[in-house]
């Protein structure tokens, strides 16, 4: 884990915002609520929850909901994200699509806090730990 200034009270506040966002989840099919909170470089916090659809492919994860809300309002740089879902023994971690979406706007060292809904402390790893070989679009040289 790096020495990011988000670790500590800021991370706890982000984790709590993610837990609160999970309460808004629309998950009638999986019964698996997830919330996310992402901290932009300007200090603003953006939250999201998972939103399911009867046509499963149209569902949206909490992490991308939070990220896309922030990006749609002009944020392009982020310091940390918290994801709240699951239990202490099986916490929700970002799926591959969410990891790649986060990699578009976050550095590999960005802290990702996984927060069980049934209590317990956040488990923090870097985005690079979750997605060591992200896809990058080749630049024209």
List the SSEs and their pairings:
Layout: H1 9-22, E1 34-40, E2 45-49, H2 62-72, E3 78-85, H3 96-105, E4 111-115, E5 123-126, H4 127-130
Give a quick summary of the entry.
This protein is α+β, with helices and mostly antiparallel strands and 141 residues long. It has helices at residues 9-22, 62-72, 96-105, 127-130; strands at residues 34-40, 45-49, 78-85, 111-115, 123-126.
Question: How would you explain this protein's 3D organization?
Answer:
With 141 residues, this protein is an alpha+beta fold. It has one domain: Cytidine Deaminase, domain 2. The protein has helices at 9-22, 62-72, 96-105, 127-130; strands spanning 34-40, 45-49, 78-85, 111-115, 123-126. A 5-stranded mixed β-sheet has the order 2-1-3-4-5. A hairpin with a 7-residue loop joins strand 4 and strand 5. It is globular, with a radius of gyration of 14 Å. The termini are far apart.
CATH architecture level-2 label = 3-Layer(aba) Sandwich
Q: From the alpha-carbon coordinates, what is the Rg to the nearest angstrom?
A: 14 Å
Enumerate the strands of the largest sheet in spatial order, edge to edge or round the barrel: 2-1-3-4-5
CATH topology: Cytidine Deaminase, domain 2
Tally of DSSP helical segments: 4
SS-based class:
alpha+beta
The overall strand count is: 5
Order of helices and strands: HEEHEHEEH
The CATH class name reads Alpha Beta
């Amino acid at each position: 884990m790096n020495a990011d200034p988000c670790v500590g009270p800021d991370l706890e506040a982000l984790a709590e915002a993610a837990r609160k966002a999970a309460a808004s989840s629309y998950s009638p099919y999986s019964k698996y609520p997830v919330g996310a909170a992402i901290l932009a470089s300007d200090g603003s916090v953006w939250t999201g929850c998972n939103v399911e659809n009867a046509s499963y492919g149209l569902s949206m994860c909490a992490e991308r909901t939070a990220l896309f809300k922030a990006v749609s309002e002009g944020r392009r740089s982020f310091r940390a994200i918290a994801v709240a879902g699951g239990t202490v023994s099986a916490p929700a971690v970002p799926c591959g699509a969410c990891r790649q979406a986060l990699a578009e706007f976050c550095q590999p060292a960005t802290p990702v806090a996984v927060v069980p809904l049934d209590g317990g402390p956040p488990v923090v790893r870097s985005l690079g730990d979750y997605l060591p070989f992200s896809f990058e679009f080749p630049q024209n040289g």
